[in-house]
Each structure stands twice: as C-alpha cells, then as structure tokens.
Design brief:
Rossmann fold; 6-stranded parallel beta sheet; single chain; 12 helices
Length: 394
C-alpha cells in the first residue's frame, strides 16, 4: 500500500513483464500497472477498481495484510474490462455482501462476464456518496472506452479517478508524472490514446467539455494504468482535447510492404519528394514493424501514403492488417493515396486506395502503379508526386 496523498492509497499491481494487451492487439514494451485505489473516509473505506485476474491472489493477500478485508465498506467498479475487474470474483467470494457501485451497463457486463449477481448499486452522472469528510461524485463516461465506463471525483480532495482515460501502459519504480522520463511518458500516452481511445474522439471531446463545465478543481488525476498525474494534472486533459480534434503533425507516413524491393524503391522515392517541401517523411515497412507503432504514426501524421505489391490479385497480409487497424481508428482530417508494384495484374494499389477511403482518409491522387522495378523516369515521377502530395497538406 502506497500513500498517494492524505487518505488516498495505491493498492494496485505492477506488471513488469506484460508485452501484449487486448489479447495480442496492443504491444506494451514498458509493461503496465493495474491501478486500484483505497479512499479512507470518516464513515467508509472505499476500494476503487481491482486488478487483472492472474494477480488476484497476490492482490487480495496484500489487501488483507495492509488494510484488512473486513475494513472495506464498499467497492466502486468504474469499468468491467477484466484488467480492472478480474479480481472481483475472488474478492466478493470473501465479501459476498459488499456493496458495489457501478453504472447500469457495468452491472450488465459484470453478469455477462462472470455469471454472478452481486450487491450492485446503480449510479449515474451527478450521484454522490458521502464517505465522511469526502464526497464521491460519479460521472458516467460511456465509450471512454467501453459503454460501462465512469469517473469518480473525490470532493474535498480535488482528485479525479477516471479509470482508463488519461492513462498509459507504462510501469516504473516511481508513481508520479514529475518523477519519470518525460519523453517516454508522452510517447506511451499518445500510443495509448491513438490505439485505444481515438475511435471515440467525439465522446472524448464531449466528456471533457462536460467535466470542465462542472468547474471542479483538479489537483491530481489517478488513472487505472501507468503513472499518476500530480504536477499540472490538467495537462493530460488538455492533450486529450487536442488529440480528439482531427490531430495531425507535420509528417507524412509512408507505410508499405514489399516482395522483391520494388515497392520499397517506390516508397523511398515518394519520401524524397515529401522532404523537398520541408515536411517530415517517415518510411515504415509494415511487415517488419509492430502494428501498434504503425497505427500511432498513422494517428500522428497529416498524410498517409500506403503501398503494397499486388499479390494473388490483392494486397499483402501486413498491409491488409494495417488497413483494418486504420479503419478502427475512425480518423478525420487525414489525406492519403496508395501505390505499389506489380508484374501482370496490378490490382493491389486500387484495393489499397479503396481501403484508405473506407477508413475515412481523403484521397489526394493516385493510385500509383508500377510494373516491376521503377526506371529513372519513374523515380522522378514518384518524387514529384510525393512533393505535390506534401504541398497539398499545407
């Protein structure tokens, strides 16, 4: 148990070995944490969220030794995804009558995931719980990032517990944002937002507007993954708002797969053209780069040039996977085009261009097709296209 501030304690789990999340969808090179919090009021001691199931025995043993299970008066379940609720079955076997505060959708999800019925009290935005000295305010946050999600604000402590919002998959020996490597912290924040939260950008903006409208002071933000924001905590809310508004940097991502290096030659020629404008060109081989990082670069880029050779009248497996991921991001404000080499049929670039358009990317030229290896005049044509494409983004 680690004291976060007066009467607020971290009772979570640090998972140093975690490398994959959401099955194998998301990579976590820097591990993660399952942040669970204990609030000590004069009337009630409140546990907020639990942890992932594989750690349930360690988690409950720690609660017993540091807090005493009998001293916990209620549990707040802010989100039922199993990395937060997985230890609830074991905990509530020991405390079967423990009141559980959650949204209506969370109650439904708990029952469908665990096939149990618990002592749930349904709460909605504006509902409050007096725990003595502090008042907990519940704020529903559907689709940040599940329909069941909610925030808990501790009145009298000026602290927000937003579950998955404002977090990152990042475990260190430290607890707070001002104690860690800032470059790595923000890299993990934008990777987390891009891959997990960005599909719900409209809801993010609406929820931030609603929260700001409440006029609540915020001295600390305690998310359910990663570090706790105590130095200028509103900076992460400001970033989420910025990221939710068709975010883009001065960069063109050129993501491709290649069979006999011909599409790679095209990609590098396009990059040289982009760089003539002063914009940054980032060239990424989709088959050799982790997809989580590719999608983060897609999110950050103003333009996307996607390339694949034609393989069996289609596109490569790697680029098909990337395009499915891009579609899931529900991007706005991006421009793109497709390119690729072929030997005899040449459908690949057109298929790829259609996938870009389906993903909400505005098509700006192309598709560019190349029979086998580009000649010098083809290279010049590609460089010119890259330059014109980048100029069109300014």
């Amino acid at each position: 148990m680690i004291k976060i501030r007066e009467n607020l304690y971290w009772v979570g789990i640090k998972d140093w070995e975690l490398k994959k999340f959401h099955g194998d969808e998301f990579t976590t090179e820097n591990g993660s944490t399952y942040n669970s919090y204990l609030i000590k009021g004069e009337k009630k001691t409140v546990l907020v969220d639990t942890c992932w199931g594989p750690f349930k025995d360690e988690y409950i043993a720690h609660l017993e030794s540091s807090v005493g299970l009998a001293n916990i008066d209620c549990l707040i379940c802010q989100h039922t995804e199993t990395d937060h609720s997985g230890a609830m079955v074991a905990l509530l076997e020991k405390l079967p009558d423990l009141p559980v505060y959650c949204t209506a959708k969370a109650k439904q999800f708990l029952e469908s995931q665990y096939h149990r019925e618990w002592n749930c009290t349904i709460v909605k935005t504006g509902d409050k719980l007096d725990i003595g000295g502090y008042e907990l305010l519940f704020i529903e946050a559907p689709m940040l990032h599940w329909p069941d999600s909610m925030f808990t604000y501790i009145n009298g402590m000026a602290t927000l517990l937003p579950n998955d919002a404002f977090g990152q998959h990042y475990v260190t020996g430290k607890m707070f944002n001002d104690e860690v490597d800032q470059c790595l912290l923000w890299q993990e924040c934008i990777k987390y937002y891009a891959n997990i939260v960005s599909p719900y950008a409209k809801m993010v903006k609406a929820k931030i507007d609603q929260f700001r409208g409440l006029g609540l002071p915020v001295e600390m933000i305690c998310p359910s993954h990663g570090i706790i924001w105590r130095e200028n905590p509103m900076q992460i809310i400001d970033k989420y708002e910025e990221w939710s508004l068709s975010y883009k940097e001065d960069q063109v991502l050129i993501v491709y797969d290649t069979m006999w290096q011909e599409t790679r030659v095209m990609a590098e020629a396009l990059a040289r053209g982009v760089e003539k404008t002063g914009m940054t060109a980032k060239v990424v081989n989709a088959a050799r780069t982790d997809e989580t990082h590719v999608l983060t670069d897609v999110f950050r880029s103003a333009g996307i040039l996607a390339g694949s050779p034609t393989i069996n009248n289609g596109i490569s497996h790697a680029m098909a996977a990337v395009m499915e991921g891009v579609k899931h991001l529900k991007l706005t404000g991006k421009q793109g085009a497709a390119f690729g080499s072929y030997g005899w049929s040449g459908e690949g670039p057109a298929i790829l261009q259609a996938r870009l358009e389906e993903a909400g990317v505005k098509i700006a030229g192309g598709p560019l097709k190349q029979v086998h290896l580009p000649r010098p005049e083809d290279i010049a044509r590609l460089e010119e296209f890259g330059q014109q494409f980048a100029e069109g983004l300014k």
